[in-house]
Amino acid sequence: MDIVSYLPSLQAGLNFVAAGLIVAAYLFIRRQNIHAHKVCMVAALVVSSLFLTSYLYYHNQVGYAPFRGEGLVRPLYFTILFTHVLLAIVIVPMILVTVGAAVMNKVQLHQRLTRWTLPLWLYVSVTGVLIYLFGFHLYPP
Predict the structure, then answer these.
(1) What is the mean pLDDT of the chain?
(2) Pick from 97, 71, 83: nearest CA to 131
(3) How many domains does the chain have?
């Protein structure tokens, strides 16, 4: 059994779960359920870390996979991919700083940072699923 061939589906699932956990954490904090918010955020961190680990392993094993779509979908795909990759690079330190503020109980700083971190992390998670759908189902390699 070759685990590498299953990793793209696993990664899409992890991104989907991370997005759901981020939304749930947001809804919990809006209802002032701090404990549930923390649980969801820790779970989102774990799931996103698993994603990143499997993503790096997959691309170390497989390398570059060309996108097979043609026509108008091609610039759409590469626009989504470009913004996804750029924001994925940016979001990692943002998440670490935002979590650090929460751990140090700097609530006001944490709240200011989450106004940027939450939507960007959510965008990266959702577009990760879209990239998978485009690259492995709509236009398979």
Answers:
(1) 96
(2) 83
(3) 1
